[in-house]
Design goal:
Layout: E1 2-7, E2 13-17, H1 22-30, E3 39-42, H2 48-60, E4 63-67, E5 70-74, E6 82-83, H3 85-88, H4 98-105, E7 107-111, H5 124-132, E8 136-140, E9 143-147, E10 155-157, H6 163-173, E11 179-183, H7 189-200, E12 204-206, E13 212-216, E14 225-227, H8 232-244, E15 248-252, H9 260-268, E16 271-275, E17 279-284, E18 293-294, H10 306-313, E19 319-323, H11 333-339, E20 343-347, E21 350-354, E22 363-365, H12 369-381, E23 385-389, H13 392-397, H14 401-407, E24 411-416
Parallel strand pairs: 2-15, 3-14, 6-7, 10-11, 18-19, 22-23
Antiparallel strand pairs: 1-23, 1-24, 3-5, 4-5, 7-9, 8-9, 11-13, 12-13, 15-17, 16-17, 19-21, 20-21
Helix pairs in contact: 1-2, 1-7, 4-6, 5-6, 6-7, 8-10, 8-12, 10-12
């Protein structure tokens, strides 16, 4: 099992290119199930989760041709509308095949996703939405078994904002008969990216980016070529790493407008930020002031950036409060940050961080994807050597993170350990 070994205390300097967005790539790759024509995607990140989804699509009969950052997919052959537990258990986003399979082929058998370390992510809203569109759905031996001769448009109100739920129902609705209205829909840029790709395929969608999305069903969709949006969470992670180390970094191939809440908080922490259409430069003006924040659905502060800011706050001046409103178990990085010397107390869904003069290196363990990123940032600012175990979480969402950080001057290397 691989480890990351970091010797901290070096301000990050230089340029870094941002990869395609994992959370956009996963639903986008599922759109191939909606058409018999070829789909071509560029700016595809080479990540564990993306490779898992490609394996799942291949197991159904999708023909895949891959060339570095470009992937061509074709589901013109006979598709087996079955997603096995063995593949779905490792990645909850696999449930995104449900809507496309059901709307195009009239049936789907998809394993219920496994447990998630950071809290409950029920698929109830996906199922309720599809039932409202006329699907017959049973849960049998851990599988969602769905049938529908033809899905019909419906008005669907989602009790809570769900990104994958919005995406799944939007993909189901594009080939349904009549008009579907999704209310309390997710507004994330990744949802907008999916909608834009579907429109390029011939779908009729309005309101994406707002909380009411209207989809008028069409009889068939064509193929298209589409470039996946830059990863705003990878962007945010590098921005925080640069700020926390007191560095000066230019991030290329990114979109600042998808990160307004994060950029506002970094400016509040005393960072100087310069933005162009596809780049962001960040440098610290002086003392790290730290920031209090509260997570909420887009366009508010993203839950996926909470852990990284907590690492930066650990050595900030004064006391800050981080409140998590999305996932109930998303403070598992706190005890690991404490091992490095951070002064953090958890009260309910809030963490109170009292800034300390410095962190000291230690061996810590990654518990989920974004917790891993916070430990990398903590290692970059800690004195001495930090060893991060279980970094397979990082490989799910960050492409070549140690190489990118090394290019910015960080003393970081991957160590392969023997499995006994």
């Amino acid at each position: 099992m691989d480890q990351l070994v970091i010797s901290g205390g070096v301000p990050l300097q230089g340029k870094v290119s941002i990869s395609g967005a994992k959370n956009a790539a996963l639903p986008l790759l599922c759109t191939t199930l909606l058409t018999s024509q070829v789909m071509t995607f560029t700016n595809v990140p080479n990540l564990k989760d993306v490779n898992t989804l490609l394996k799942l699509l291949a197991s159904m009969g999708v023909v895949i041709e891959q060339d570095q950052k470009q992937i061509q997919l074709s589901s013109s052959q006979s598709i087996a509308p079955f997603a096995s537990y063995d593949l779905v258990k490792t990645m909850r986003a696999s449930v995104l095949v449900l809507g496309p399979l059901l709307t195009r082929f009239g049936e789907a058998k998809v394993s219920l996703p496994g447990g998630c370390a950071i809290g409950e992510r029920p698929v109830d809203l996906h199922i309720k939405g599809l039932q409202a569109m006329g699907a017959e759905i049973e849960i049998e031996q851990g599988y969602i078994v769905a049938h529908a001769k033809k899905l019909k448009g419906a008005r669907i109100f989602m009790d809570t904002v769900t990104v994958t739920g919005t995406e799944n129902l939007m993909m189901a609705a594009v080939l349904a008969e009549g008009t579907t209205v999704l209310e309390n829909a997710a507004r994330e840029p990744e949802v907008v990216d999916l909608a834009q790709c579907l429109i390029n395929m011939g779908a009729k969608i309005k309101g994406h980016g707002s909380d009411v999305i209207t989809i008028e069903g069409v009889t068939q969709l064509g193929g298209t070529a589409y470039s996946i949006m830059p990863d705003r969470i990878e962007t945010g992670t590098f921005l925080v790493a640069a700020a926390a180390t007191g560095g000066d970094v230019l991030l290329q191939g990114t979109r600042a407008h998808s990160l307004d809440a994060v950029l506002d908080k970094l400016a509040e922490a005393n960072a100087l930020i310069d933005v162009t259409e596809d780049s962001i430069r960040i440098r610290m003006k002086g003392v790290n002031h730290g920031v209090s924040l509260r997570t909420a659905p887009y366009p508010a502060f993203p839950t996926d950036m909470q852990a990284q800011f907590m690492a930066m706050n650990a050595v900030a001046h004064g006391t800050t409060v981080v409140t998590e409103t999305i996932f109930e178990n998303r403070f598992m990085h706190v005890q690991e940050l404490r091992r490095l010397g951070a002064n953090i107390e958890v009260e309910g869904n809030s963490a109170i961080i009292r800034g300390v003069p410095k962190l000291d290196g230690a061996t810590v363990m990654a518990t989920d994807l974004r917790a891993s990123a916070s430990l990398v940032i903590a290692g970059l600012i800690a004195h001495g050597e930090t060893v991060i175990d279980r970094i397979y979480h990082l490989d799910r969402g960050y492409e070549c993170i140690e190489e990118k950080l090394s290019n910015l001057g960080a003393n970081i290397k991957r160590r392969v350990t023997e499995v006994h």
